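Rotation project, supervised by the postdoc (A.L.). Task for the rotation student: set up a whole-complex structure prediction and record inputs and outputs verbatim in this book. Inputs entered:
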Amino acid sequence: AQSVTQLGSHVSVSEGALVLLRCNYSSSVPPYLFWYVQYPNQGLQLLLKYTTGATLVKGINGFEAEFKKSETSFHLTKPSAHMSDAAEYFCAVTMNSGGSNYKLTFGKGTLLTVNP
Amino acid sequence: DAGVTQSPTHLIKTRGQQVTLRCSPKSGHDTVSWYQQALGQGPQFIFQYYEEEERQRGNFPDRFSGHQFPNYSSELNVNALLLGDSALYLCASSFHRDGPGNEQFFGPGTRLTVL
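Outputs recorded:
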């Protein structure tokens, strides 16, 4: 079984401040982890993903995340927030169960607001 | 490349009615997954289609059914609509050989309102 917990349904930061969105996962086998962003009235866009290898992954728009197995975490960060980063962010997990079809399990999301 | 497309954009139905939502995958993709996103929640997996068969199913009742066509496009059907079925329905496509680390590309969704 797999699950995702996103701590904080709403995070508010000032423009130029550090963005930190928290994600903890549960998986019975090594996980594959994703961060998606959703702008109002739009679908989901992939920010970054962790599959194997380097635990610090870089994504689009200056975001990065670090996979920490010991903490079962995959927190998303950005050094300096921009107004255009205001959106809802979803952490998701899937796992290699030996088949060829992989469903994503999402967290409940974190709404990021950026104040001028 | 048009990406994943979904139709219609919005839909209003009444309780007890039936609805069909449509999805065309990104070019080169052969697998379609459907997700339900209730207001203020993360997307929840409904089911996944590959080679015109349902391969995986989430915790949704049999009122939710689907179909995949030879051109890989897909339909989601919901019968006997309930108020609780009101949500954004997202379609995602992928290529089955890319494995669990592959990116699922999402469409813009269909907003279903049940009155």
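Student's summary: Chain A touches chain B at residues 4, 6, 32, 34, 36, 41-46, 49, 51-52, 90, 92, 94-96, 99-109 (CB under 8 Å).
Supervisor addendum: The mean pLDDT of chain A is 92.
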